[in-house]
Amino acid sequence: MPRTRVVIQSRLNSSRLPGKALMTIAGMPLIELVARRAARSGHEVIVATSDEHYDTRIADHLERVGIPVMRGSLDDVLGRFVTATTDLDDDDRVVRLTGDNPVADADLVDELLAAMDASASAYGRVDIDQVPEGLGAEGFFVRDLRRAAATTQEPYDREHVTPWLRRNLGELLFAPAANPGDALRFRCTVDVLSDFDRVARLFSDVPDAVGIRWNELIDKLGTMVTADGATVPTGSNRLFTQSALTLGGSQLSGPFASAPPEVRQMLARAVDHGVTHVEVGRADGNAERILRSCGEPQLTQRLGFISRLQPLVAGDPSVARLGVEASLERSFAELGRRQVAAALLSGVEQVAVGGGAAWERLQEYRSTGEVGAVGVSLANPRDAEALLTLEGLDYLELPYNVLSPALPESVSTLHERGVTVLAHSVYGGGSLLRGDHPRARALVDASREVDRDGVADLAVAFVIGLPSISSIALGAVTDAQMRYNIDLVARPPLSAEQVMKVRELLR
């Protein structure tokens, strides 16, 4: 009868959370918990670690507690899997797990294998685009593992084990029946310190950490998620995927900026609740530097940066190109990474600086992957008309709020072409929220007419309700304010009918 062996890869030199394999969860090292949960129903299990000196700690512990372990090349993980399955026949199967996913268990493995059998698939994996990270598993036959090892010497294939299999066998993308649906909020891997804290709490009062089924843990995690607040929705537009809330970075700098612990908490909350990007610029004082110094690297790696360039001075093409380079290179240095999700020229007139050389230089940064999207930050939405014929435009930033005139048709046209539109100044620089605003009474009345919880709720729901707006930038100086912003953006936006009604009321 064909055998199935679960091979769990593990190492101590994880770049984001070194040593995590031996960090304690439920009274035992993480790697031991992962192995015991995978073996619960009788599966053969072996941990494949490296032969680096520090991974002796993993091997020694597993040998003491009776869990099979083998050692091989740090970088050739594919080779480790081949060695870990040397005694198996070609028709036997392998399931690949990683040592940082303790929620996954034997039941998940069995469900994946059953789906592979039903579809006659030679390779199957849990689809982490639909399923939370932390429930990953892959299944394949020993014969194909051996073919991959004999065929490819590509470092990427050797390090990640299964890319050759996916390219040559096709793949079954599998979602288990109890998949919670919200892949981001139900994240249950241990990749960074905040993940460890969350998963340790998940297991903290479980009587039988090995025996509890993965779906029971997910149910418990759901209770934790609900208690922790709402999730910000995310949308896609051509090449860009962005959450409906973007963290405005300008408030991280200046005399009223938050202390480092508060910034760290705000960033953690933003990431945990689905915020994907921070909008920040060279003109925002030392906000970029604060993001790097106050945010944990493991955390900020999960955020993309929308970078507004320093305004460029007029000059010949060489001066324009140097201006773009100076601004972007400085941002790379301040942010501590050589990549931004989007880079924006500060004003429509900047597109023509140096006879278009500045825009051309931005396009070159995009072609190298150092900039994901290129765009323009407008002073007035009406300026979008001048961008209708601009080639290579991916991104548009503009000020907009509930009292602004209707968005010009040019913005809608650009959005329909796939340009991402980010709105800022949703509160009118804070003036809309002040009781002494000339339209304060009208704003309060309008919010009641459309059943919103005050002017802030109205202002956010109105702008997000516009089809041409992809995301709004809101700053925060306290964690409580960050939580409030998340809650507002997570609420349903105004309908088209409600938007029209508010316009009439505020005319």
Describe the protein.
With 507 residues, the protein is α/β, with parallel strands linked by helices. The protein has two domains: 4-224, Spore Coat Polysaccharide Biosynthesis Protein SpsA, Chain A; 240-432 and 460-492, TIM Barrel (Alpha-Beta Barrel), CATH 3.20.20.100. It is built from 19 helices and 19 strands. It has helices spanning 30-38, 56-64, 77-84, 106-119, 142-151, 155-160, 163-169, 193-203, 214-228, 260-272, 287-294, 297-300, 317-335, 357-367, 409-416, 440-449, 455-464, 479-490, 496-506, and strands spanning 4-9, 24-25, 28-29, 44-50, 69-72, 93-98, 123-126, 138-141, 172-174, 234-237, 240-243, 245-248, 277-281, 304-308, 340-346, 371-377, 395-399, 420-424, 471-474. The longest helix has 19 residues, at 317-335. The radius of gyration is 26 Å and the shape is globular. The N and C termini lie far apart (77 Å). The mean pLDDT is 93.
Short description:
Helices cover 38% and strands 17% of the residues. It is built from 19 helices and 19 strands. The longest helix has 19 residues, at 317-335.
Keywords:
seven-stranded mixed sheet, single chain, Spore Coat Polysaccharide Biosynthesis Protein SpsA, Chain A, TIM Barrel, alpha/beta, 507 residues, eight-stranded parallel barrel
